[in-house]
Design brief:
Layout lengths: L8 E7 L8 E7 L7 E10 L3 H7 L8 E2 L3 E9 L11 E5 L7 E5 L4 E4 L5 H24 L7 E4 L5 H12 L3 E6 L2 H9 L4 E4 L5 H8 L5 E6 L6 H7 E9 L21 E3 L10 H16 L7 E6 L3 H9 L6 E5 L3
Parallel strand pairs: 9-10, 9-12, 10-11, 12-13, 13-14, 15-16
Antiparallel strand pairs: 1-2, 1-4, 3-5, 3-7, 3-16, 5-6, 6-8
Amino acid sequence: MTADSIPKTQKVVLIDGVGDYDVIKYQDSAVPSIGDNELLIKNKYAGINFIEAYFRKGIYPVQLPQILGREATGVVVAKGQSVKNFDIGDKVAYMSSSTFAQYTKYSSSGLISKLPSETTDDQLKVYAAALIQGLTALTFLDEAYKVKEGDYILLYAAAGGVGLLMDQLLKERGAHAIAVVSTEEKEELAKKFGAEYVINSSKEDILKRALEITNDKGVDAVFDSVGKDTFDISLNALKLKGSFVSFGNASGPVPPFALSRLSSKNIRLMRPTLFGYLAEPEDWDHYSKKLFELIDSGKLKIAITKTYPLSEYKIATQELESRKTTGKLVLEIPQ
């Protein structure tokens, strides 16, 4: 593709307000112009994440209108005159805002990796599906709470995108994963991906079962992506000096609470974000290489359950938010 062949307009998915699904729009938008140190990437696949719903609902405020998307794979089609580390035609995987679009501009020194020239379309799809959730799983299990062999770990949404990756990594590290799911189908999936114990929240008491499994000692750590509805359960399931990693709002944000509630068991409470663990270039290099190696070696399976055309993002997020899906959902960008 030459500069002359890059179109002036493109198809994007954006939100133009805060609210329900009606603020999601699939429409034309200008192709962005790039600066001296930027790349223009023609996207092939983009991963879908819960954070897009948080933007739409106003949980995380953003400037409107906002093109959605946080991760993608594609090909460099233009570069600024100062860019030395990428060439036109390079295949890339990267994390950025505004990836639910045919074209995204991005810094050549950002969270971006050059992929081998022989990378296939199937691999591009897998990498697009794996970036945010795979790096979340790796960094949180290394840094938010460094999981040790023999640890008992309570994990919510264990059949979701991050959950299925954590199931595998916890097993690899010799920890006991206690996976919380909501259906029998998800029970089987969590077990298939390595969970040692499974709690079906639709018919079992999460706290009671977690304490039974740990002989009333409680778990070493909780990874809670649900938020408001599970906060008290998670707190009560922890052992003395346990670690509470809260990283999602699927049921809504955790309401304010008295810090003194952490004192009785010396609980360590964290609210990490992935980007805090990727702040330095060496962090991105370390974890992205580790993720790609795990995927390419077959040690980490990426469960892509459905691929939607970009125009059907609204349908995709309705299915995701209604908890009808497992694994990862991906958008295919029109070429």
